[in-house]
Amino acid sequence: MQYNYKYRLNPTEALTETLLHHVDTCRQLYNHVLYKLNEADDIPARYEVQGRLPDLKSWWDDLGNVHSKVLQMVVKRVYDNLSTLKAQKENGRAVGMLNWKPPREYRSLTYNQSGFKLKNTSGRPVLWLSKIGEIPIHLHRDIPENATIKQVTVKQEPTGEWYATFGIDVDEATPEKPEKPEQVVGIDVGILKYAHDTDGYAIESPDFSEERERLERAQRDLSRKEHGSANWEKQRQVVAERHADLKRKRRDFLHKLSNYYATEYDLVAVEDLDAKGLVELPGNSRNRAGAAWGTFLRMLEYKCEREGTHFVAVDPKDTTKECASCGVKTDKPLWVREHSCPSCGFEADRDANAAWNILSRGLEKVGVVHSESTPVETALPVDTSVSAKRVVETGSPTLKERTASAVSE
């Protein structure tokens, strides 16, 4: 399996200057390749462009100071961006052309396959990079012994801090997913409650109001500085640090929540959300962006794969309108937080009802077959008289009773 491990670097002033020079050389090469491709009648293959790099070094002296694999990855970066642009165009998005990269938008370089080595010099770990040198690194967690480091990406964050991200390949088999999952859960994500699951847990959205206020104050102070002055640059770094603080705390919450669901259950059903499209909708876009649903679902997906847990993304259409007991659809505005079915009389929290529908669709999508002795039989709060396509639960508490005793985290 492939993972990314991120570590903090502590380069000296001399190494920082060298790193910045290498990054800027890569940026200029990126712009040069993009210019040549825009001028060409037919776009050549990537490997053909990479093959021209040795000739390019004959008149561009700075390229000779950068490792060859790093230069090849710059060309790959151009072609990857072109492929992304093409895919967006095919999906109906209005796209233009790739722009040249200014210094503030190009902050990283990548060593692939060779040109790097993790060493332990005089009892302290260092990252050796070809044509740069040894950079002290803070290994806050060990890389697995059965892992192979495939590539290293070195990046300077807007705060000025340097990080190295190791792309590693762990030599271990992916755990097999159970044919008959016993511990199953459906999750409905939202804003008032970040997640509401079918076990009756309503997880509160993290309160980052204090961090946002600190960020807004820093941004107001930045707007009062003369752009490009020394005071402006100092305050810009403060703003970047506030952004980084908010991002770290949000990702910490998402990592812990996704890890809980991936490790505690055999099957996790979620909505297949278009997170980017939801953020672009008018009204309340700030809260939708801050919820980071797309990041949460990506984290949950790869962690379920790592743990051998079924990850099922289902169609989100009408999960809120549809009754989890009888399947009848009922329109309800956003401010109505309770589900009350006019057909069967089933009542539940709005989000909890959606979570049961998500789990029901997830089980159907996976094609799980249940027997009377299977614990999964109690997955859905339905009556014995309702649709046969749903799992029957007799003699168990209703969903309303479950959610009444929900534990908020």
Describe it:
By secondary structure, this protein is of the alpha+beta class. Helix content is 40%, strand content 20%. The longest helix has 35 residues, at 230-264. Strand 3 and strand 4 form a beta hairpin. Residues 369-409 have low confidence and may be disordered.
What topology emerges from the helices and strands here?
Blueprint: E1 2-9, H1 13-39, H2 46-51, H3 53-57, H4 68-90, E2 108-112, E3 116-121, E4 124-129, E5 133-138, E6 147-156, E7 162-170, E8 184-189, E9 193-197, E10 202-204, H5 209-223, H6 230-264, E11 267-271, H7 275-280, H8 285-291, H9 293-307, E12 310-314, E13 338-340, E14 347-349, H10 350-366, H11 399-404
Parallel strand pairs: 8-11, 11-12
Antiparallel strand pairs: 1-5, 1-7, 2-6, 3-4, 4-5, 6-7, 8-9, 9-10, 13-14
Main features:
409 residues, alpha+beta, five-stranded mixed β-sheet, 11 helices, 14 strands, disordered C terminus
Entry summary:
By secondary structure, the chain is of the alpha+beta class. The protein has eleven helices and 14 strands. It has a seven-stranded antiparallel β-sheet with strand order 2-6-7-1-5-4-3. Strands 10-9-8-11-12 form a five-stranded mixed β-sheet.
